[in-house]
């Protein structure tokens, strides 16, 4: 009986959903409808988990109003466990997959390793605080999603290139390298 009730609730919770993308409609409106319904279903599906997660974080922060003084064991345990899970930044170690003396793969591995080291050391991206927050998210509510926004910076450089006509053909060519300028573009 309980199993049948669970199946009935599963059917009821997904009632009104679309079986295929075509059922949602065509074009951008159909795509929006499909995504909105997927978000609504996901919100319903995990509402109980979100409630428990919020309660756990409130206990960790000791956000309840209480008159008696108690020791917050969840806070103490979480702080100890977080240090055990992540206490210092690891050093990147990138190697070629097959230990061959291929200079391209060795150079590529070295470039990737140095890029990872720079990304972790860069003062604009606080790697340690991001990972520590992720560890707390794993230990308390039980889920972690890290998002790091990349904001590129560009420099506009106007470089003047000296051009002279070739003496025989009259086609323009660069003074510094002698390359011909393609005038077809």
Draw up the topology in text.
Elements: H1 2-13, H2 21-24, H3 27-45, H4 47-61, H5 73-85, H6 103-121, H7 127-139, E1 163-165, E2 172-174
Antiparallel strand pairs: 1-2
Helix pairs in contact: 5-7
Side-by-side strand order of the widest sheet: 1-2
Helix coverage percent: 40-55%
Percent of residues in β-strands: under 5%
CA radius of gyration is 30 Å
Which residues sit in consecutive blocks of at least 5 with pLDDT less than 50? Answer: 1-13
Total helices: the number is 7
Mean pLDDT: 79
Kindly report how far apart the N and C termini lie: 75 Å
Structural class: mainly alpha
- Main beta sheet: 2 strands, antiparallel
E-strand count: 2
What general form does the structure show? extended
Element-by-element helix/strand order: HHHHHHHEE
Explain this structure to me?
By secondary structure, the protein is mainly alpha-helical. The protein contains seven helices and two strands; from the N terminus they run H-H-H-H-H-H-H-E-E. Helix 5 crosses helix 7. The protein is extended.
Please supply descriptive tags for the structure shown above.
mainly alpha, single chain, 7 helices, extended, two-stranded antiparallel ribbon
State the gist of this model.
With 185 residues, this protein is mainly alpha-helical. It has 7 helices and 2 strands, in the order αααααααββ.
């Amino acid at each position: 009986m309980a199993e049948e009730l669970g199946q009935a609730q599963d059917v009821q919770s997904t009632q009104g959903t679309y079986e295929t993308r075509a059922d949602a409609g065509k074009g951008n409106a159909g795509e929006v409808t499909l995504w909105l319904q997927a978000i609504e279903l996901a919100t319903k599906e995990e509402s109980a988990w979100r409630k428990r997660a919020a309660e756990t974080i409130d206990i960790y922060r000791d956000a309840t109003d209480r008159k008696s003084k108690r020791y917050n064991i969840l806070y103490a345990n979480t702080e100890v466990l977080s240090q055990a899970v992540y206490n210092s930044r690891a050093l990147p170690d990138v190697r070629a997959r097959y230990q061959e003396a291929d200079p391209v793969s060795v150079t590529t591995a070295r470039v990737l390793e140095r890029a990872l080291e720079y990304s972790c050391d860069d003062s604009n991206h606080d790697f340690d605080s991001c990972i520590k927050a992720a560890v707390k998210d794993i230990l308390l509510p039980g889920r972690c999603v890290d998002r790091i926004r990349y904001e590129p910076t560009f420099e506009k450089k106007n470089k003047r290139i000296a051009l002279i006509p070739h003496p025989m053909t009259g086609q323009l060519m660069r003074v510094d390298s002698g390359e011909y300028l393609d005038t077809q573009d």
